[in-house]
């Protein structure tokens, strides 16, 4: 039984913004399948009465005082930018919302 | 002379530095020389920062002669896993996507290392973004195991473990999400400790799975691990999950343990972490180590943690889910690699996908895709949500087990170091390496791997000691006791039995 | 799917006669904290690009968020002011989506556990009627950076060659307030929408949690509109118009969407559930690009943050410290001042409430304060096309001006000249009176000279007055006022003239 189809891998790769070659899609469809099957076992014990644990060491209300600290310099911020212009990051045209 | 320095443990070297027998510059140069001699074969280092290290060493020497108060490890050189950001030093996390990236800031643990005057020798190799158990997933080539150059040094922190095992550094930093400090420790004959989650700041660790990641020491002795843990650990207000309490006294616990008395200590053998799937030599050494602990006065009991069987499954849901989100920032917009799409319009979206498709290696893609799938519409509850529940069950198992025992023990890894390529095409087999180490990450409890002999194949085996959360001192006490006792039988450290590495002539 | 041209609209009155609009409004407010939501980068409007980030707000590898405690307090304040329940425990979640202005490619937000939920707010319409809007939730999150589109049509994303990103805004704390479906507003839906956003703005300011300046984008509204055939009919398909950034635009957006959707429905088509954009210049909405993964945000609890569990003591402490809400304050002030309903509405709509309150606090009568702000100053503000509150005169100065009049130092006419001086930056009213020499002439000697001259010049008037007809005395007074350039106290002049003539 294939849990993750080729199409599904392609859809998820789109969501994850990763270009995959066709051979990669094929391979991942096979490999992810194995993992997903092993994962199905989890649901056997994860019953409704068991609470979820998101943090191994429970803490609450970890807050910071609203006091400014030194910001990075514009030079440091842009040092690794693939492209920049006028103190800003230059990115390819964005399709989408205005 | 230089060879002698590199053979010293960190605490021995610290003593020599303190009494003036050796200077930090000498010690640092000795390790840099050793790196130059052997790292061509090993590839433990991705970047060597000789100049900076020597400058730090000279500074520490000057402060020492000026009579400044210095920390216990001042002047002792250290190597840092490349997943930890270092201001001004390249940081790649073993990935092409970060090639050439120089961070503008230091991780908290790096700040502490710098403040304590430890010269940073360089950055060590690792599986890309710490995803792997063999360091075969580094974009910059395999690191080899000093015990056998055809074999893996473990992973993801194979570089740190190999560097320490090969006497390139007395200390190194590792990170452990599912065993990446402990398993390389086991297969290289070194000590690797994963602190309690929240015990060492994660600020500045390039995250794989935020709720599982912990940084910790990679050393040749248990005492060194405790000393380094004390140096890098403790509360950090920049990490919201950092425990706001002082660490227990770790080095003291190690020294106490080395004295060899474990009377009254209950050692729990986790039933589910032994037997089938464990290499014969691994099981044999484990049984002998239990005898050693008994001989030291410990009471050995068997405990059952029935949900550990599901730990690996839960881990492979939580880890990729968190990783898929943590790795989203690598998109070619602000730093790192940017790749233009080979066809079609050049839009931000297309450039991101081309960059990630080219910049990420196979294992990273595999985990990001799986994690994205696990979080994708309709699957959250079934996958990630269920895995979080397993976490609760694993924690309950630990709680019950720690009612019966002060520490829990198991072999660190089911096998000794395997050959390159052996498990590359079988992710599940690869993942099984972490079966004994993962429960501690899920529950947040501390664990250490201590070398406990050689298997039938002549390769090192590790003994894992797990302690309750925030009781990291216990694992150091027990680890040091075992280590001291075993070294007596061996007549020295296990690493003394490692084959000599071929050295390249220095042209300096 | 038939494309409906934007010009194809049903007349508004006709549309609301046949369809029942249902609204849903999401308002984002930027909190006025000193630092960002999850890092200590200072927040300051108008700084050089990319000078207000840390590794955290820049989303650099390794960086970790830490919650700004003041932002949490502000969020609780907002929740309480909106009559919400405050969660005993809540969490942050990651909303995953790739966009260049989102540095981590996820927004740290709240998902199934908002800090505040189940509230309501009464919205006052211009005619004084109130309308209750139910609040579903208010949650904490962080703002994105700012894109500037280069090339193509100026500043527009479509056809742009590339974009420039500034992350100064990235990570500024936001509270997003989401209404339940707003039903029953009928034809007044556009007005309700506008009044709701305006009411929130006033509350944010009263709470001192934000400067709440619409023009700076401190407050942004996403407006959901759907139509159904009647109040009993099932809800229709909604559209969401994003980032509507002025009160007027909120109203116009709703109005336009009602007309547009009515046309779609009339044509027998179905409304497409989509994101739309409001165009201020043309007054229409247009569809945004359809993003295939827009709804698959892969939310999960933010593992780098721990739960926020405000203690009940803390919540009650915050509640006790809440200032008076704008509506209550308006009611109280109207009672204190004795303004008629219509007068009060005018004052509120003119944005003169604070100004009048401060002027009254300076010692002016409520009537006197209103006279100035709603009269002379409103007229000048309108002439200069600036908001009343940005006139270069303070309530304290107006109070001083009124005191000078009351004390007889100046008269109404002089007061306007004094105001000229104040507005010209010549100082406080008293100083302007001095420097311009505008004080009322109260020296009887100086007045008598002028009076005697006037009497001598108009003997016929003097005769009439002496004959018992006081009517023409105004001519003498006028001449005296003219001679003293208006600086004489007319009442005193009259007394002296009559005295002189012997009456
Ligand atoms: Mg919205
Ligand atoms: Zn929002």
State the shape of chain B.
globular
The largest sheet of chain A is: 2 strands, antiparallel
Number of helices of chain A: 4
DSSP summary: helix tally of chain B:
17
EC number (chain C): 6.3.5.-
Protein name (chain C): Aspartyl/glutamyl-tRNA(Asn/Gln) amidotransferase subunit B
Enzyme class (chain C): ligase
Keywords (chain C): ATP-binding, Ligase, Nucleotide-binding, Protein biosynthesis
Compact description:
With 508 residues, chain B is an alpha/beta fold. Chain B has helices at 2-7, 10-18, 24-42, 50-65, 108-115, 158-165, 182-188, 222-232, 250-258, 280-295, 311-326, 348-359, 362-375, 381-404, 427-431, 438-443, 472-490, and strands at residues 45-48, 78-81, 120-124, 171-176, 191-194, 214-219, 266-270, 299-303, 407-411, 447-454, 460-466. Chain B is built from 17 helices and 11 strands.
Q: Would you give an account of this structure?
A:
- The complex is a heterotrimer of chains A (about 100), B (about 500) and C (about 500).
- Chain A is mostly helical.
- Chain A has helices spanning about 5-15, 20-40, 40-45, 75-80; strands at about 65, 85, 90.
- Chain A has four helices and three strands; from the N terminus they run H-H-H-E-H-E-E.
- The longest helix of chain A is centred in the N-terminal third of the chain and has 19 residues, at about 20-40.
- In chain A, about 35% of the residues are buried.
- Helix content of chain B is about 40%, strand content about 10%.
- Chain B has an eleven-stranded mixed β-sheet, with helices on both faces.
- In chain B, helix 5 links the parallel strand 2 (about 80) and strand 3 (about 120-125).
- In chain B, helix 9 (about 250-260) packs parallel to helix 17 and helix 11 crosses helix 14.
- By secondary structure, chain C is an alpha+beta fold.
- Chain C is built from 16 helices and 15 strands.
- A nine-stranded mixed β-sheet of chain C has the order 3-6-7-10-1-11-12-13-14. A three-stranded antiparallel β-sheet of chain C has the order 5-4-15, with no helix packed on it.
- In chain C, a hairpin with a 5-residue loop joins strand 6 and strand 7 (about 130-140).
- Chains A and B meet through helix 1, helix 2, helix 3 and strand 3 of A and helix 11, helix 12, helix 13, helix 14 and helix 16 of B.
- The structure holds magnesium ion and zinc ion.
- Chain A: Keywords: ATP-binding, Ligase, Nucleotide-binding, Protein biosynthesis.
- Chain A: It holds the Pfam family GatC.
